[in-house]
Amino acid sequence: MKLNQAKEQELKELCRTLRIDALRAIYQRGSGHAGGSLSVCEIMAALYFEELHVRPSDPDWPERDRVVLCKGHAAPMLYAALSRRGFFPPEEMSTLRHLDSRLQGHPCAGKTPGVDATTGPLGLGLSFALGLALSLRLNGSAARVYAILGDGELNEGTVWEACMAAAKYRAENLCAILDWNGVQLDGTTEEIMPMGDTEAKFRSFGWHTILCDGHDIAALTEALAEARTVRGQPTILLARTIKGKGVSFMEGRNTWHGKVIDSDSFAAAMAELGGVV
Questions:
Q1: What global pTM score does this model have?
Q2: 3-state class (DSSP) for residue 139
Q3: Interior angle at CA 149, CA 90 and CA 99, nearest 5
Q4: Element of type H or E holding 5
Q5: How does pLDDT run across 206-248, given as a tens digit for each residue?
Q6: What CA–CA distance (Å, rounded) separates 235 from 129?
Q7: Would you tell me the crossing angle of helices 75-85 and 5-29 to the nearest 10 degrees?
Q8: How does pLDDT run across 129-152, given as a tens digit for each residue?
Q9: In DSSP terms, which residues pair with 150 in a beta bridge?
Q10: Which residues pair with 211 in a beta bridge?
């Protein structure tokens, strides 16, 4: 599906808002993961505002599409998207990581409207997403499951076990999206654990692969549309992104994986994004 120019511009502006919302929440709490939240922004926007069949007024609608944020530390951006989509008021973002808040540091199913899976331990989300996809198929549902992976997460062997199982069971209703920003907690992915030809690996495991620019809304929506047409195998979007995207001094820097945002850094980030301090 191709976006018209007006819709594409609308979604670009939405992404600016989502980045402001997520960073403000992290700054106000003095805790959270900025870098990986910013890199997944356009992916969240493409999903929640173009792709997904969901009902914010009925978060538990049985026929809804499901999202599993495998890289659960990017929860601030998930919450920003959910709030702007209408699952809860945007003002609730100010409760991020507070005691008894619905917006915990990692997604919590059953607590936060719109969250389908409790995630945090890296490597487990794709297996959970596969289980969801297979259960939906057994129930005759047309709903799809989208699993958002981090590239540092590919170091986990359980990811590849899930890949094998998804191919074996021909889980065509499962679409993974790799937030391929090349940076993880302690450095670049090449420094920590080189993965070689990532696309070739997924293909060898029996997945349909789609390369795309993870910050290009139009490219993402077209890739998601292609994924819906694939039959007999799971699909992964290998979405090239930049950690910290949108804030120049955070971009590509592993130090901003979970660094506290001080007042000067917040002011500088808002100046770049056009937000209010």
A1: 0.97
A2: coil
A3: 40
A4: helix 5-29
A5: 999 999 999 999 999 999 999 999 999 999 999 999 999 999 9
A6: 13
A7: 120
A8: 999 999 999 999 999 999 999 999
A9: 179
A10: 238
